[in-house]
Amino acid sequence: MRTTRAKNATLALAVAALAGCASVQTPTPGDPLEGLNRTVFKFNDTLDTYALKPVAKGYAWAVPQPVRSSVTNFFSNIGDVYVAANELLELKIADGVGDVMRVVINTVFGVGGLFDVATAAKLPKHSADFGVTLGHYGVPSGPYLVLPLLGPSTVRDTAGLAVDYYGNPLSYVHPSGVSWALYGVNLVNTRANLLTTVDVLSAAAIDKYSFIRNAYLQRRKFLITGGDGADSVPNYDDSLPKYDDGATEPAAASGAEAGSAPAAAAPAGGASGTSGDGQTVPGQQYVPPPRGGLPGIHLPR
């Protein structure tokens, strides 16, 4: 009897807490789920602060920068396979073929992707995922969402996560132990590359949630529109783009959300960023391990 009462009391407290967190007096226009989003954002940020960040600091201290750069290049080269596939789906033939060539060159001449030979050969790197592909064909983004562990997203980008999972070559690595090891190394390495940038963001942003939200949404529009038009210059004010991804809406320059913490601002959307030491941080590398297991973490690209 006491156990039943305790369970009922715990459930009532949890529901009350969730209801209190899921509402704000004046939600920002374009962010109707702001109360709930802020609650999830705080959870992700706390997890990053007390779990992922200390591990990343130890990794950065123990592993030399040239080795970390090679690890970054390796996972970035794998990600280019999925980027090329999405660009071909969007009928961006030149970009898609260019990324296929990047994979071939970096794999053959870059020792399996450990060295970014393609960039030195003047082949630019692109960013794409299935959420961007859907937006390219006119699917509206829907409300902004912050997903537990996965970070910033939208309804459209969340719907694209399943395709992102099956489209990522790392999803087919067997056995599962090797897959977990690859995801773990990639996660810690990427977080280590972002240590300086995240610290700067924490010190500079008055409201980190609003900054990351706006940067993420504008970055997504930039990827969909390709930066066409005079409005491609980023404008990080408090206004939010409309849900419709029309070409007349403002778009942002790439890399704007690089300052977000992986757990708190991970774009399940393939955004890329640059660390404080100039190292490019790949995205679309964190998906659930193949055939079951706990969800992985998408980091900004």
Overview of this protein structure:
The protein is mainly α. The protein has a domain at 37-68 and 127-281. The protein is built from twelve helices and four strands. It has helices spanning 2-21, 34-62, 65-89, 93-109, 117-120, 130-136, 155-159, 161-167, 176-193, 195-204, 208-225, 262-265, and strands at 144-147, 151-154, 273-274, 280-281. A two-stranded antiparallel ribbon has the order 1-2. Strands 3-4 form a two-stranded antiparallel ribbon. Strand 1 (144-147) and strand 2 form a beta hairpin. The chain is globular.
Mean pLDDT: 76
Secondary structural class? mainly alpha
Number of helices: 12
The largest pleated sheet is described as: 2 strands, antiparallel
**How many β-strand stretches?**
4
How far apart are the first and last residues' alpha carbons, in Å? 52 Å
Series of secondary-structure elements, N-terminal to C-terminal: HHHHHHEEHHHHHHEE
Question: What structural keywords apply?
Answer:
4% strand, ABC transporter, two-stranded antiparallel ribbon, mainly alpha, 4 strands, disordered N terminus, two-stranded antiparallel sheet, MlaA, 12 helices, 301 residues, globular
List the topology elements.
Blueprint: H1 2-21, H2 34-62, H3 65-89, H4 93-109, H5 117-120, H6 130-136, E1 144-147, E2 151-154, H7 155-159, H8 161-167, H9 176-193, H10 195-204, H11 208-225, H12 262-265, E3 273-274, E4 280-281
Antiparallel strand pairs: 1-2, 3-4
Helix pairs in contact: 2-9, 3-4, 3-9, 6-11
